[in-house]
Structure formats: C-alpha cells, structure tokens
Amino acid sequence: MERALPQLQVLGSRVHGVDMTQACARIEALVDEQRFAHVVTFGSEMAMLARRDGAYRDVINGADLVVPDSIGLVSAMRVLGRPECERVAGIDLVADLCAMCARRGFGIYLLGGAPSVAAAAADELLKRYPGLQVAGVRDGYFPSSDDADVADGVRRSGAQLLFVALGFPKQEFWIRGNAVRLGAMVCMGVGGSFDVIAGRLKRAPALARRLGLEWLYRLAREPRRWRRQLALPQFAALVAAQALRERRNHQRARDATRSIRR
Ligand code: UDP
Predict the structure, then answer these.
(1) Which of 16, 122, 212, 250 has its CA 20 to 30 A from that of 8?
(2) 7-198+230-237 topology per CATH
(3) Where along the chain do its domains lie?
(4) Residues 198-246: pLDDT tens digits?
(5) Paired residues of 49 in beta bridges
C-alpha cells in the first residue's frame, strides 16, 4: 500500500503537495498498478473554473493525482499551510515521465494539438529520450462523435501513459468521459505542451519562470488570454479569504479545547 500523499483543499479542489520527484514516482507506481488513473496538472485558472462548475470540480476531485502547475497555485498552497510546496510544471513533468518511460520500457501516446503537432512533438521526444516507445499520436481536432473511436485506438496502441493536449477543461472531461474505453492506462492533461515540445510555441525564459512571471510572458505572446487571466487576482483574493476563514476556525477550535480543559 502506497503512503498517502499530502493534500490540501484550494477553493474546493483537492491538490497534492508533491514535488517533481514525488509526482514522477507516484505516476510510475500508478503505471505499475495497471489500472485507469487520471493525473491533473492544475493551475489557478482551472481552480477558478472548478470553484463554479461542480462537474469539473468532481473530475478534479476524482483524479488520482493533482499537481500544482502554476505559481499562483503554489503561492495559494503556501498561504494555506504547506510552505514547502513547489511548482510541478506540466511540461517538465512530461519530460521526466518520458525519461522514466524510456528507462522502464513503457509506451506513450500523444493525443491533441493541431494536425502534425503531436507527430512533431513525438519526433522531438524520440530524439531527446533514446529508447522511448511512442505507441501512437493523433491530433486533437476531431468531432466528439469520434470520441469512442479515438479512445479505442489509444487503448489498442498498448500505450501505458497517455498525454492529452486539448486545453482545459476539455482534456480533463475527455479523459474522465472515456475512462472505461481507455482501460488500464495513466492519462494526463498537458495543455499546450506539444506546441512547446514541437517548437511551435516558445516557453517563457528561465528568468521569467524563476520570478514567477510566466503568466505575464504568455499574456504578452498570446494577448487573447487576457480575459482568462482576469481570474487570477480574483483567485488570490478568494485564497486569502479561505486562509483567513481556516485560521479563524483553528483559533475557535483551540479556544474550545482550552475551555473544556479548564
Ligand atoms: N486543442 C486541441 N483540440 C481542441 C482544442 C485545443 O487539440 O479542440 C489544443 C491546441 O491546439 C493546443 C492545446 O490544445 O495545443 C491548448 O493549449 P493551451 O495552452 O491553450 O492549454 P490550456 O492552458 O488551455 O490548458
């Protein structure tokens, strides 16, 4: 039996306080269990959506592993009582998982992105991780009436790890909705990672990432994201309110215990 991972509720969504090494080890263990498993790389915008959309929240809370994939979410977890929390960036996790899969002989499947992007990302990963087995690739622009065929194709490929790049919330709903057809497989939503791996989209420079300014870089490159990013200050305010509420509740519980002891 695996040791339970530390976890925290952020605005109603359960997030695991794991670092990159722990996340990778848990995913390797999930592959070894040979069952369906869902891994979510979770960010602040996703947390805001989960807060107002119960169906999305259920998908997140039903996942096997939810890693904090944005500086906003990591800051939230620190404020909410896990100061040791670190960011587990989805794209870095994909890289470490590909290294693990090459070492263990697990097959991966890349699903999503514009036509030819998944194939280009697969070529790049094969170059970077010699011995990696790519069981299949497929672009992410198919009608929902093809969902069953696509999921059957993924299962037949024999892949043990499926990366789904359909953007949120589509990728999380797709994974959950096709769980039965996918069968024994670890599935993880990876947003725009294939675009970055394939060299179609540049990642923020290391300095911007270190300073926690990746969101600003993305906003500058993709101004259409401004509306989505309006959610971020609201996220910060709601997390501060949650932290205050929790502190008040702890204080009340402590006071009550003291008065019983007296
Ligand atoms: N995408 C897709 N099918 C769709 C919608 C989106 O394959 O129906 C892909 C899109 O080409 C891009 C990724 O999903 O590669 C979404 O990237 P984004 O950075 O917007 O991810 P998010 O931050 O929304 O999770």
Answers:
(1) 212
(2) Rossmann fold (3.40.50)
(3) 7-198+230-237
(4) 999 888 888 888 888 888 888 888 888 777 778 889 999 999 999 999 9
(5) none
3 state SS for 186-205? EEEECCCHHHHHCCCCCCCC
Query: Which residues in 180-200 are b (16+ Cβ under 10 Å) and which e?
Result: ebbeebbbbbbbbbbbbbbee
User: 201 CB under 6 A from ligand 1?
Assistant: no
Beta bridge mates, 165: 112
**Residue 117: is it exposed, middle or buried by C-beta count within 10 angstroms (0-12/13-18/19+)?**
buried
Q: Where are the beta strands (DSSP E) in 18-148?
A: 37-42, 65-68, 107-112, 133-138
Amino acid (1-letter code) at residue 231 = A
Minimal-distance CA residue to ligand 1 atom 17: 192
User: Nearest Cα to 250, choosing from 80, 52, 35?
Assistant: 80
Mean pLDDT of the region 160-173: 98
Q: How far is the CA of 196 from the centre of ligand 1 (A)?
A: 12
Residue 257's Cα: distance from chain center in Å? 39
Burial 215-246 (b: 16+ CB within 10 A, else e): beebbeeeeeeeebbebbeebeebbeebeeee
